[in-house]
């Protein structure tokens, strides 16, 4: 069973574009319109299967993407799930905050469907390569 990509974005259009694009690329997707609903679901219920990736919009009502990331990092079962932030702001401050929270990637809106699939594919390939490198035999 493939692990889902979780998308948290308040824009129905962006959620639908991401969902359709990622599903066409072969990824299962779960979407949430805001961070509060996502966290209620992810933190209060057993998470099965554990998501393979969180795509977080930074500019969300009630709770922004950075706050969501902090909560996710506190739950051990979710703390290692990669983060991809998306935002209409492309400033250095936003990128730095994202990196400090452990973001693997950052995309600026608007983005193309090709860009999102390439970013996700590259991210998963890098993670796979890191796992292969770190889990290989130790040679002295």
UniProtKB/TrEMBL annotation:
Q: Which CDD domains match?
A: REC
Instruction: Identify the residues that the record assigns to the Response regulatory domain, covering every copy.
Output: 4-124
Single Gene Ontology BP annotation: phosphorelay signal transduction system
Instruction: Please name the PROSITE patterns in this protein's record.
Output: RESPONSE_REGULATORY
4-aspartylphosphate modification, residue list: 57
Q: Which UniProt keywords apply?
A: Kinase, Phosphoprotein, Transferase
One GO MF term, please?
kinase activity
Protein's name according to its UniProt entry: Chemosensory pili system protein ChpA (Sensor histidine kinase/response regulator)
């Amino acid at each position: 069973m493939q692990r889902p990509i979780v998308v948290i974005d308040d824009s129905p259009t962006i959620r639908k574009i991401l969902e359709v694009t990622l599903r066409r690329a072969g990824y299962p997707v779960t979407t949430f319109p805001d961070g509060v609903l996502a966290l209620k679901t992810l933190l209060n219920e057993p998470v099965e299967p554990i998501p393979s990736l969180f795509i977080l919009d930074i500019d969300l009502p009630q709770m922004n993407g950075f706050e969501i990331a902090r909560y996710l990092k506190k739950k051990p079962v979710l703390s290692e799930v990669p983060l991809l932030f998306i935002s209409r702001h492309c400033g250095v401050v936003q990128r730095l905050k994202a990196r400090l929270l452990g973001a693997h990637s950052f995309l600026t809106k608007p983005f193309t469907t090709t860009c999102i699939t390439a970013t996700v594919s590259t991210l998963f390939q890098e993670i796979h390569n890191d796992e292969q490198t770190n889990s290989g035999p130790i040679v002295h």
